[in-house]
Amino acid sequence: MAWTRNDIAARAARELRDGFYVNLGIGIPTLVANNIPDGMTVTLQSENGMLGIGPFPLEGEEDADLINAGKQTISELPSTVYFGSAESFAMIRGGHIDLTILGAMEVSEGGDIANWMIPGKMIKGMGGAMDLVAGVKRVIVAMDHCSKDGESKFVQSCSLPLTGKGVVDMIITDLGVFERPDHASDFRLVELAPGVTLDEIAAKTGARYAV
Amino acid sequence: MNRIFASAEEALDGLLHDGMMLSVGGFGLCGIPERLIDAVLASGVTQLTCVSNNAGIDGVGLGKLLRSGQVRKMISSYVGENKEFARQYLDGSLEVEFCPQGTLAERCRAGGAGIPAFFTRTGVGTLVADGKEHREFDGDVFIMERGIRADLALIKGWKADEAGNLIFRKTARNFNQVMATAAPLCVAEVEEIVPVGTLDPDAIHLPGIYVKRLICGAPYDKKIEFRTVRTVEA
C-alpha cells in the first residue's frame, strides 16, 4: 500500500523540530499543518506577511483582512505577528526560516525543482516559490511519485522551466523518501512506503539514486 | 498642508497621465485600493504599467483596469484566477514581466529607498536570471535586480491620522507598505481618518512622509477570494 496524500504529509511532519519556523506550500504540504506532533511548537509563516498561522476560522468569523498565501481565510493565534511583504521575504531570503515543504511538477537528481510554469499553457507566475527555495535553510518536496500520465516526477533532468537549481534536500512521495546530506551529494533512497518494493520504485523513477 | 480629499477622483486630480507607472498595494483581493482603482478607471487614462503582486480577478481590483484595456504592462509575481488577463496575455495585447514575489517586494523597497539595484540568490539558474548580471559573493552566485521607482503609488490602509501616519490591519498590510514608498507620491485610501495624536507614534506602520494625499473610502464591502471555515469540534 503506497502512502496517501495525508500519509505523505504525516511523513513530512516527522521532519519538523520543536521551535521551527516553517513555510508550507499549497497542496499536500498544506496537510502537514494537521500533522504537527502534540507538544511541539512549530510556527507557520505565510509569505503575505504573517507568522503564527491559526486554523481556518469558524463560520461567521471569516475576516477578509486575514488570509494565507493561498488566499484562504484563516485565523490568528495569541503568538501571531503581522508584517509587510518586504519584511516577509527578508526573513525568507535571509535564511531565518528553518524549513519549507513544497509541491513540485518535477525534481531532478541534482536537486533542481520545477513547479511554476508549463510552456504553451497559461502561465500564472512563480509567486514566492523561487524566493523560498533560494532562501530557506532546508527544502523538502512532498509530491506524488508519478504524474497523472504515469510519468516519473523524480527525473534525471527537469524538462520544465526551473524554480530553483540544486536546492532540494529531501523528496517524499507516495512510494518512499529520498534524502541527501548536502547539495553536493546524490540522493539516497532512505525509506519505502509500506508494501512498496525496491524494484517497483526503481521501475517508476527516472532519476538515479543510491540505495 | 491639507492632505485629506473628499473623494478618490479629487485625490487623483492632476496626478494621472497616459503611459505612467503605478505601484499598487494588495495581495490577491486583500488590502487592494479599490476606490482609487475605480477612480483610475473613471479617468480613462491608458497605457499604464502596473507594479502589483497580483492583477485582481475578473472585474475586481486591477481586473477592472485590465477589462477596460487601460493596462499595457503588468509587473507581478502571480496572476492566476483571471480569465481576462489570460486572454490579453495570450493574444499579445498585454505585456507581463514575471518577478519572484520576494524580489518584487525588494525591488520596490530598494527603489523607494534610493537603491538602484541589488544582488539576490533568488532566481539563479532559472529563466528569471536570463540577461542579468551574475556575481559571486563569498562562494555563492547572485543575480542583479533593479530597484523599481513608479510615478505614483496607490495603497489601502486601515486608519490614518490627519498627518498621514498610517496603520494597516492584519494581512492587509502585505505589499501596501512597500508600494507606498516606491514612488515620489503616494495616495492612500483608509477606512477611518482620525485626529493627530490618536494613533500611538510607536505603532505607525507607514509614516506620513510617504502619504501625500488621503481619502476615507468607507464603507467597504471587502471581498474574500477563497472562503474556508472549520466546523466546531465535538
Automatic annotation (TrEMBL), chain A:
SMART domains: CoA_trans. Keywords: Transferase. The keyword Metal-binding does not apply. InterPro entries: 3-oxoacid_CoA-transf_B, CoA_trans_fam_I, NagB/RpiA_transferase-like. GO terms for molecular function: CoA-transferase activity. It comes from the Bacteria. Belongs to the 3-oxoacid CoA-transferase subunit B family. This is 3-oxoacid CoA-transferase subunit B.
UniProtKB/TrEMBL annotation, chain B:
This is 3-oxoacid CoA-transferase subunit A. SUPFAM superfamilies: NagB/RpiA/CoA transferase-like (SSF100950). It holds the Pfam family CoA_trans. SMART domains: CoA_trans. InterPro entries: 3-oxoacid_CoA-transf_A (IPR012792), CoA_trans_fam_I (IPR004165), NagB/RpiA_transferase-like (IPR037171). Keywords: Transferase. It comes from the Bacteria. GO terms for molecular function: CoA-transferase activity.
